[in-house]
Fold this sequence. Notes:
This protein is of the alpha+beta class. 26% of the residues lie in helices and 43% in strands.
Amino acid sequence: xxxFNMIRHATTLTVPDVTAEKFYDFMINPDNDRYREWWPKEHxxxxxxxxxxxxxxxxxxxxxxxxxxxxxxxxxAIVTIADxxxxxxxxxxxxxxxxPATLNVKFSDTPDGLRINHELRVGFNGIGxxxxxxxxxxxxxxxxxxxxxxCLEEWPRLAKYLRN
Length: 164
């Protein structure tokens, strides 16, 4: 997975009173209704389109959410890492092709609560790296700021949702 390293955005935070197991279960078994209840203004859809193996490796999911009022992320993705309860990674795809973009979420229980590392990596290898310059037209500093703000609100919201 280290091959996608041109554009990287990581957010790390600790959320009290919830476990890695609960977060992992919620994210690896996406339920569209529960996903929308989690954050109705921002979360539009998240569900399995095609199942992979019994551990969810190679599941194909559809994902649609807003980052604030102006940015929207809509894509299909394939589960490339399903390491219960520590880590899930999705590789985005479009028109049947895997894109050089991954979302990797790591969970670890600590004495202070659940530590979450949310990392988006986008970029090409080899000669394709020249195309990374064009990705910056979409993945701007304002995009990174919107993603950071979203993550810092999103994960504590999920903890609260799972506690209720």
